[in-house]
């Protein structure tokens, strides 16, 4: 048996040898485990010629294990972590990408890329990834959004976060950024799934936004720190946004745009696919209207209530099997008593908090740093405050 | 056998005794013919108590036959005519209203009104009614339309007329008027189906529009000249708009508005139901989006091409059995030669026209007044011109 460390290193190295989502690589990992799969590929034993060639090409550029080790060291310095299957944080729903190719139209089935589950995630931010995605909705759309689209996406982001839904998007200009900002404005949780390293601000104009997301939400990527946002990676990335959420809302899209691809993936994965219509006179709604006309599964939604109605339904989504991984579920009785004793607004001193929670001051002090680390509480000059509306901690 | 004149008078009298669309009256006419049905009702022999009571109440206000005769005299003075089943002009598709109640949800099936075919139409304008409706699309929507809706409806009206489709609407402010105006601007044919007499300009603000429509299109009503636009009549009227056209396009509608009722009737009658989406931030698109969410048969359309795609399909619509009644189809060879010889733009003198058509001048002179009457040609100071794009005369 290989250690967790070996597995992690092998998965990172495999992601460097072949782009994430390569089905043949994922199948090898399934059969042999990541360490043996890596050995096989490095020995030139890939069963497919195309894969063999690309592994050989990457290997000439560097030693896969050394590159991976360097990426892990860099991540550590940046405060990023790697999450792999089997970890508590691993979001089980992305494993459903395993069958994605079977659900695509014939011509797309034979394609080896964009259809396998991720081998690993790089994560920056204070939340467990699986917990953050458990109750999540994607809001995606055009980069060249109109004021109408920005307004709608901001409103949806705010409203979803306000109802304790995590808002997932791609960190791009336009609709993506509006959705993230709406969620941040509501004091909610938002996750940006990137097509480059979690240390890279791409696009640069959203650098401040990424900093805010890394502080209170999550930056997530399948590529190691430093990785470039190459063009094909956006489409590879989209499958994670579709698979990791309960549904995708498409706000604005030009004809045949990438955002409509995310929505199509959501449909293929039996997630809710929702589309916001717009003026027929707007080029930025052409893709949205196409989707509504061509995809019977795409549901027209006009606002928050209708989005909640869609994603609130249980059913098609396979239950998430992995154990308690929402932050509130990880708390022991003392920590939970402290959270419940926090005032909804404003701050409270440690002594007063101990009294409210019915605990010894030293017990409270011991738990506070953990609660801070989980981003449930924040330390202020005059005491502690809830980091987010307390109902998130109470709901599941 | 009763004469055509007797039948007409009886149908007009019956429409005065009970509102058009009353199923029990239509059934009596089906069984007994209009003259005997009228006699039966006037003798107090209506099989339904409610109908008996309403006939008695109307009869106390006047003699039904005398009222009908007066209405016919008034119509004659106004240049309006009555059209009844069996007339060449009678639009066969409205007979499909006979089964409408069977296609409505349970609760609406037992209602006696709004679901029978008309007993007669009052018509003003130079076109045979059946021919005008043969290739027609309804464009309906909110009275309190936004500039966006007005823009879209005007464009659709123009584009449909330009492609030789008749634009049918209800003559109301907002979307209806915009659709009519668009068609008129294209030099096309438009039909206003009114909920009052064809001599009444309701709403008054559309008086000039009604004059233009009466000159080059048709004003149509089930109610006799002088009849008031009572509130329930708008819903009764809507079934004719739905039944008389190949499809209905809903452009803007507030929540639960009358225009959505027309679209629902179109669905019940297997006509194409099309809905133009709009900004989700607009109250005037709420009804349109509701329709798209709740009625699977309602098709989202974003412009002319998609509307044409829908109504251009043959299939669900029963073929119109009655013979040639499009103006161009009524022409003999000489008249057709004249129309085909007309210049697409500008005017032509009689001599030149005769030469172009290869006909004797006196033959041309004999046909010209008929072509003028059919509104295919117009007389100008310096000769004759086509009243409408010549392609209407060539297509069917």
From TrEMBL, chains A, B:
Pfam families: DNA_processg_A (PF02481), WHD_DprA (PF17782)
GO biological process, one term: DNA-mediated transformation
Coiled coil regions, renumbered to chain: none
Smf/DprA SLOG domain: residues covered: 113-311
Transmembrane segments: none
Domain of life, source organism: Bacteria
Residue ranges annotated for the DprA winged helix domain, each copy included: 324-372
UniProt record similarity statement: Belongs to the DprA/Smf family.
UniProt protein name: DNA processing protein DprA
Species assigned in the record: Micromonospora craterilacus
UniProt lineage: Bacteria, Bacillati, Actinomycetota, Actinomycetes, Micromonosporales
């Amino acid at each position: 048996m290989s250690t967790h460390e070996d597995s992690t290193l092998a998965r990172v190295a495999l992601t460097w040898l072949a782009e994430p989502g390569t089905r043949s690589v994922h199948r090898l990992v399934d059969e042999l485990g990541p360490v043996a799969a890596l050995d096989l590929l490095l020995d030139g034993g890939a069963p497919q010629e195309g894969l063999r060639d690309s592994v050989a090409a990457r290997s000439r550029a560097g030693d896969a294990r050394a590159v991976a080790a360097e990426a892990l060291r860099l991540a550590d310095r940046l405060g990023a972590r790697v999450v792999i299957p089997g970890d508590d944080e691993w979001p089980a729903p992305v494993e459903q990408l395993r069958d994605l190719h079977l659900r695509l139209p014939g011509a797309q089935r034979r394609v080896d890329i964009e259809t396998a589950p991720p081998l690993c995630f790089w994560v920056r931010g204070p939340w467990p990834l699986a917990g953050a995605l458990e109750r999540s909705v994607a809001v995606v759309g055009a980069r060249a959004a109109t004021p109408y689209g920005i307004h709608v996406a901001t409103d949806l982001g705010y409203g979803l976060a306000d109802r304790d839904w995590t808002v997932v998007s791609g960190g791009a200009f336009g609709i993506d950024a509006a959705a993230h900002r709406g969620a941040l404005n509501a004091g909610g949780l938002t996750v940006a799934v990137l097509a480059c390293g979690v240390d890279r601000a791409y696009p640069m104009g959203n650098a401040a936004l990424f900093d805010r997301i890394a502080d209170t939400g999550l930056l997530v990527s399948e590529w190691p720190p430093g990785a470039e946002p190459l063009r094909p990676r956006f489409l590879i990335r989209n499958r994670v946004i579709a698979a990791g959420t309960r549904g995708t809302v498409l706000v604005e899209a030009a004809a045949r745009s990438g955002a409509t691809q995310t929505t199509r993936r959501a449909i293929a994965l039996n997630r809710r696919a929702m589309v916001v219509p717009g003026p027929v006179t707007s080029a930025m709604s052409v893709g949205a209207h196409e989707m509504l006309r061509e995809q019977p599964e795409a549901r027209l939604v006009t606002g928050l209530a209708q989005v909640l109605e869609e994603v609130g339904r249980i059913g098609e989504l396979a239950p998430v099997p992995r154990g308690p991984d929402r932050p509130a579920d990880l708390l022991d009785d003392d920590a939970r008593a402290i959270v419940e004793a926090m005032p909804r607004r404003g701050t409270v001193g440690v002594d007063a908090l101990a009294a409210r929670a019915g605990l010894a001051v030293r017990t409270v002090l011991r738990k506070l740093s953990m609660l801070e680390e989980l981003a449930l509480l924040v330390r202020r000059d005059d005491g502690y405050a809830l980091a987010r509306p307390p109902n998130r901690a109470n709901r599941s």
